[in-house]
């Protein structure tokens, strides 16, 4: 109440101390930054003040528009005074702003991880699309969009979500509840605790959803993990694919016993990768030569028979959808599309592969997907190093490209850190996603079961 009662006095003191007596709209409007802010003010004032100053007989649309423009200009004058106060008080600091700008006088940041233009959180709501992208807009816009529905949390409206049959199953036992995972994936749980089990999971819908946005974390369906039930469920998702260790791999710290899988069965931090890179098969190429080619699986199917420590042993998932949105300006999906890479390691039968496409199209969605393995020098592991180079470029450029990709894969705006709870079931698209594991205490009982399927 004290602030509201004195707000006008505060504003006047600000203008008297830091304002410019010669402030003139025609002059300041020549600045691109000023115009960007002005257009933003106009956009929201038109809706904010419509109930306060409704259009009626004595207030036409034209008069209302002129009034809005006047208020916006007054706000700009106060904004310039405020900027002057900031400059004087914090001479050695950089000013941040939630409004779009050229970057000359301030740095603009978005407070929301949206793919849409700058919007102030108190003027908008957010909507989650099925592929994990987030957009912002006025509630009225989403209410009028038949593809969106309002989600309530704790009895209160929270956000909008894209409507899909893929998020609708198990109704005969109460159905499911779901929520988007930041920055990628979906968390799905039974709407009624313990009402749905592993056998009730709609494998076809979960598989289709995973192709659009992974990982799909299914929690509360498998509270008493059973190996036979897990294997049986894998057959519902697709064609399970055995490897040299068999169909099911128990991922657990085995000390120095790598079993030919490098540091997979250790407690070390792993490089970002996609599964099956080093699973090879003979193939006759265009020249009639028999060569070994990589045959990675389409999906991963995980469960956790034990809980992992809450602050370690994370599985990190990074989606190509997010990766390509955060690459530096000099690197993009388009200029990576024609590049190939090579990899070699003493593990996995002394594997050496070359000419691997850095970008592949997803077989179902057609979206560009990163196909890559993070370089892993001997300084990072007590097992075998993994050398990765970009083909056809200098060593310096290869290292720069790899460093840029690695930085984005680990970026918290891209990488989801999954902390495993006992019974968690995870389905992840091995084409769309890259993944890795953080280190954990050696000898702990952290254990995952993994099956690949096509």
UniProtKB/TrEMBL annotation:
SUPFAM superfamilies tied to this protein: Clavaminate synthase-like (SSF51197)
Residue ranges of domain TauD/TfdA-like in the record: 200-451
Record's keyword terms, sorted: Oxidoreductase
Pfam families per record: DIT1_PvcA, TauD
Endoplasmic reticulum as UniProt keyword: no
GO molecular function, one term: oxidoreductase activity
PANTHER family the UniProt entry points to: SPORE WALL MATURATION PROTEIN DIT1
Identification of the protein by name: TauD/TfdA-like domain-containing protein
Organism of origin: Ophiocordyceps australis
């Amino acid at each position: 109440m004290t602030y509201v009662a004195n707000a006008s006095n505060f504003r006047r003191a600000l203008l008297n101390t830091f304002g410019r007596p010669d402030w003139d709209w025609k002059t300041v409007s020549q600045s691109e930054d000023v115009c960007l802010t002005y257009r933003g003010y106009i956009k929201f004032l038109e809706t904010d003040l419509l109930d306060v100053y409704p259009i009626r007989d004595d207030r036409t649309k034209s008069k209302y528009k002129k009034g809005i423009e006047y208020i916006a200009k007054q706000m700009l004058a106060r904004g310039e005074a405020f900027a002057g106060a900031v400059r004087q008080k914090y001479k050695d600091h950089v000013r941040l702003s939630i409004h779009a700008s050229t970057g000359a006088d301030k740095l603009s940041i978005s407070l929301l991880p949206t793919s849409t233009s700058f919007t102030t959180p108190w003027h908008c709501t957010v909507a989650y699309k099925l592929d994990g992208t987030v957009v912002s807009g006025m509630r009225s816009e989403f209410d009028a969009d038949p593809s969106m529905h309002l989600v309530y949390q704790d009895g209160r409206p929270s956000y909008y979500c894209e409507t899909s049959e893929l998020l609708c199953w198990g109704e005969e036992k109460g159905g499911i509840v779901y929520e988007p995972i930041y920055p990628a994936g979906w968390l799905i749980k039974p709407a009624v605790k313990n009402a749905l089990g592993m056998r009730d999971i709609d494998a076809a819908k979960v598989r289709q959803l995973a192709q659009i946005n992974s990982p799909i974390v299914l929690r509360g369906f498998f509270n008493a993990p059973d190996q036979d039930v897990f294997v049986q469920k894998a057959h519902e998702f697709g064609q399970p694919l055995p490897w040299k260790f068999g169909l099911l791999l128990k991922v657990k710290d085995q000390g120095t016993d790598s079993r030919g899988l490098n540091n997979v069965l250790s407690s070390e931090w792993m490089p970002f990768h996609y599964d099956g890179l080093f699973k090879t098969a003979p193939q006759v190429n265009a020249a009639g030569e028999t060569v070994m080619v990589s045959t990675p699986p389409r999906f991963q199917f995980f469960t956790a028979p034990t809980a992992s420590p809450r602050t370690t042993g994370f599985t990190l998932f990074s989606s190509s959808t997010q990766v390509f949105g955060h690459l530096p300006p000099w690197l993009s999906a388009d200029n990576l599309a024609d590049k190939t890479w090579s990899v070699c390691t003493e593990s996995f039968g002394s594997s050496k592969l070359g000419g691997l496409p850095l970008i592949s199209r997803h077989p179902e969605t057609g979206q560009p997907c990163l196909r890559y393995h993070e370089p892993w020098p001997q300084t990072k592991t007590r097992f075998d190093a993994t050398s990765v180079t970009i083909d056809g470029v200098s060593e310096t450029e290869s290292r720069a490209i790899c460093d840029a990709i690695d930085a984005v894969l680990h970026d918290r705006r891209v990488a989801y850190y999954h902390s495993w709870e006992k019974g968690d079931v995870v389905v992840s698209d091995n084409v769309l996603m890259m993944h890795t594991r953080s280190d954990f205490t050696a000898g702990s009982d952290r254990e995952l079961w993994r099956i690949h399927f096509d």
